[in-house]
Amino acid sequence: MTGMATGDARSAPETALRAHLLDLLHEIEPWDDQERAHLRDATEWISSGAPLYRVRKPDVPPMHLVSYFVVLDEVRGTLLLVAHRKAGLWLPSGGHVEPAEDPWDTVLRECLEELHIPAAPSSIAGDRPFFVTVTRTRPPENQHTDVSLWYVLHADVDAVTHYDASEFSAIRWLSPNEVLDESVDSLDPHMHRFVHKLLAAWQSAEADEYGCAGACSAAAPRADGAGPGQEGGPTARIRPGRTG
Length: 244
What we know:
Number of strands: 8
Distance between the termini: 42 Å
Order of helices and strands: HHEEEEHEEEHHE
Largest sheet: 8 strands, mixed
Shape: globular
Number of helices: 5
Structural class: alpha+beta
Strand content: 15-25%
CATH topology: Nucleoside Triphosphate Pyrophosphohydrolase
CATH class: Alpha Beta
């Protein structure tokens, strides 16, 4: 487990929470130098004793913890993005971690609130974070920094029939290639990097399952969204107005 700074007075529950967060970070295998730097920055922030949880919208404290969750249909090989009204971007679902809340419990809570389905861990990372980012929000007003743990869930495309229309104007199921074709300016700034890491993990998992030396092209979901033995086809989309 990664060590924490000492010398400041902390309650036993707070110490345990910070130790748990550090353990979660320690389990993340960084994809690239940028994720390695974000892991380092997040670890130093948690260890410093700085406040971790947002207590007043939108920016108090100016750096706080977020749980993202990317929903995958692992058979069709597509992932879900939401058109976030306030951010004006296509993002994964997610939300701010409440004080003393486990980030996975944030995922459980937000998945029900935003997509009206129970959170089901994917085969990619289970109930542990798969990716971490440290992101300064866009100017000009109320800028702050989100320390985001990215989780990966599984759901069938047909299971998501409603969403929180007060937060999202639309949702879209996209293949990895379709996400990579989107302008980075319309997405979370780290979305392309996440997709590259996800594709590599998908291929590695299929290689382990099927005993392939390399990528299992006949078994792994393809970047165009076609599942095993399927041809690429139209991406399913749900338009605004279908609320629960």
